[in-house]
Write a structure and sequence with these properties.
The chain is an alpha+beta fold. It has 2 helices and 6 strands. It has helices at about 5-15, 65-70; strands at about 20-30, 30-45, 45-50, 60-65, 75-80, 85-90. The chain has a 6-stranded antiparallel sheet. InterPro entries: Protein_Veg.
Amino acid sequence: MATVQTLDKIRLSLERHLGKKIILKANKGRKQVITRRGVLEKVYPSVFVVRLDDSQNGYSRVSYSYSDLLTANVKLQVYKDRDKDKLNVS
């Protein structure tokens, strides 16, 4: 079971990447995985918010809990500064 310290470590690691471009992969169930590009916009005590680059789906922001990262329902890749290479956060 996830402890509060584990979720705090995830939150702190995301805080270091605020404002950076990311690739978000989210498991929507029944083998449906969405992949979107965006910017890590806000980090709150229980959730984080990603502003999506393409708002064609009717929404421009999504939020997920840190437990989604811990259980691998959501995966993030953060772009390194001005490089095409990516750094895997989770």
